[in-house]
Amino acid sequence: MKRLLQAALLAAMLAVPVILAACGEKAVTWKVTCPWAPSGVAAMVSQKAAALSVKYSKEIVLVAEAIRGDVATVNTWMAKTKANDPELVFCNEGHFAIVPILDPAKIQYGYKDVAFVENLYSAIFVMSAQPALGIKSIGDLKKFMDKGDTVSVAVNGAVSPEAFLAAALFGAMGKGDKLKLVPYSSAAEAAQAVSRGETNLAISHQSQILETFQQGGVTMVCAFDGDNLKVGPFAGLEGVGKHGYPYFRNRCLVVARAGTDNDKIQKLRKLYRDILADPEASKWMRETMLIEVDPMSEDDVQKHIANVKSIVEKYQHLLPR
Questions:
Q1: If DSSP codes are grouped into helix, strand and coil, which group holds residue 79?
Q2: pLDDT tens track for 188-220
Q3: Average pLDDT score over residue span 97-110
Q4: 126 φ, ψ to 5°?
Q5: How far apart are CA 272 and CA 288, in angstroms?
Q6: What is the Cα–Cα distance from 207 to 265, expressed in whole angstroms?
Q7: Rounded to an integer, what is the distance from CA 266 to the centroid of its chain?
């Protein structure tokens, strides 16, 4: 992750003079708030998009702002913004399908309060294991669980997408009573917990566990998708969907405030799609960040939220309270 952070910081520094030069009278600056870790995947992709925005638009300049936060950060953003403000924020399935079910008092907005712009990327989470356990496939995991022991799984927060992926997998296996979720304060920290021997397993972004895997610090168990991974260093890793287990991809949804003029939304959407189609950006996302360019429609987003809600409602009893 140090290498990825250094690359992101360098990209941000190089982008500053270009952005300032592009900010003419006609260009509108849109601030894009990332309410998660400043060194995380979303923040890095946001910096890349901001640097490329001046290449693809003379009307819009994207400026990335990363704030270490959570749902409360978006609550504040919602309270301070209104329709047509040049402000964007990142949300995901946690904001619209997890927190509203588990802790509705914590969230002061819903999907009706935003205007969907684009899905910045889709990430397929993976599960890793301590090498000594010999778990290298879903079949190995089932054999391990059949021993009757409790299994500990490191995740990014107690009610995160990763936590629900773990609950859905072990719950669908009929081993939910043997699951011990161990929440960490960041995705990167959770990814490394298993290599430090703090947990048996971990669920993380692919990029966050790659170096540890290459050094032999973990074995790879499965991917949370419908099929085996087809590209990248984890190509061939089993998808849980092949075994009939539930899953969802982690999405990074760019949204504006509800009521923002449609022509502004369409211009923003076109800009993001142009950026995501940029050969250098798409290669960087695929090969360095190990995420997928995956534009979505409004209907796609609604289906995604509905799928995650169904998983949350079925397996929420397995999360620590």
A1: helix
A2: 899 999 999 999 999 999 999 999 999 999 999
A3: 94
A4: -130, 160
A5: 19
A6: 31
A7: 24
